[in-house]
Amino acid sequence: MKTQRQEFCPAHTTPADPPATKNRRLLALPLAVVGLAVAGPGAVDLGWYVPTGRATVVLLGLSLAIFFLGVRIRARHSVAVHAGEQLLQIGDRPWRKTRQVGRPGSPGPGRIRATRRHPVSQPAPERSPANVDIEAVRAEAAAFLELFRAENPQAGSIGPRVAAVMREIDLTGTYWHTPEELAFGARVAWRNNSRCIGRLYWRSLQVRDLRTVSNAGEVAGHCFDHLRAAHNGGKIRPMISVFAPETPYRSAPRIWSEQLVRYAGYEQPDGRVLGDPRYLTYTTELIKRGWQPPERPGAFDVLPLVVETVEDGPRMFQLPEEAVHEVPLEHPELPWFADLGIRWHAVPVISNFRLVIGGVSYPAAPFNGWYMGTEIGARNLGDGDRYALVPEVAEQLGLDTSDEATLWRDRALVEINRAVLHSFKANGVTISDHHTESHRFLIHLEREERAGRRCPADWSWIVPPMSGSQTPVFHRYYDTEDRVPNFFADDDAVRRGLQGGPPAFR
Ligand code: ARG
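The joint structure predicted for all components is written out below.
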């Protein structure tokens, strides 16, 4: 299940402090906690040596007990401080028109394959502070805090915060971001996402701080709220909901679904697929797990949301109808198009990526922008292994499909895409076309350059899936070096989103 791949990661290369061995720190940990308990914060000396003998064993046992008690107290304290949902707007520009779209690419919708693993992200049943690569977490935290401070000078001096975070990491293997750090980290994760063409408005991402939420039912409920809030009556808001982080003492919840809204795929007796063929295996697996499809299955049946926790295993939640906004497709000139009965959901909320900020992993952090038309028209409806509408539409258009050189595919594809853009607009739901979005992306590049930052971009994802050379993003090269914070698609999460298992915790 685990990927051992480790690629270059800027945060891993910045040592946070003079080298100290992990073991020394970890051995000293329980004693340090005793020291902390006795002398109060600030008195921790991580250099204590560990004596042997019976008294020591007793002391060690006591220390461990105090340590775990401390962790629990800290967790409860966090609940008190961070309870409830907060919509973070810290340091934000006032809300205004924003755009975010992602590029549907070959491996799947909006998918970014994981290129790195994060030390605290491994779902290890025997998880404990001793299994965490403390040095790596410290280094990533230090690099992130430096970035935060560099871009938020109003936040003041970095010293005390870094010291506090380092102490927290040494004691618990992780740390708790301030709401400001969380919001900044999530926005920068978007800014760093090399496959997204819609990054111009990265600052406008609305961050819902749900880090105290880890129970499956509550996660699902907040996901439905996310859908409602992000839809916003059609004026889509880019938004992220950040649920409980992965910690050495508690595994974070996992959302199996690739997106909050996805359509079922059913194999028909004639071997063809009704619905979205991408989710054929997934749908079959969920049915085995007890999901009941509608009595008369259709091509756009919304799949249940699957949330897995250590305590409850995978649980399925039917989406409330009013939370799922859809747009029925019609064509501005071709009346028969509406009769095809095609529709698509309004908000693309990717829900199985792991958000990584400064050494902390948030495996459940669903986020959305709004659609760029080609994601639906060219890929979801156009791809041969998705809804594969092109031949049918070409037929209806009366095109000569006997010869590829008539470019019937291209012509039909254009009409499908016109229908998507037209219908979203007619229904008052935010969407953008690939020409507009390409221009915006170049503006983003310019701004990033002016800010003295490099902007990683993956040409093969940035260039739209139709009429590429008609867009300016086609005609240039990009920086490709990956950066953190970022969003990662872990292999096992990808598998769960397509195959419906195996569970993360067993
Ligand atoms: N391409 C994906 C889909 O069609 C959505 C990926 C995210 N897209 C976005 N515009 N934020 O369902």
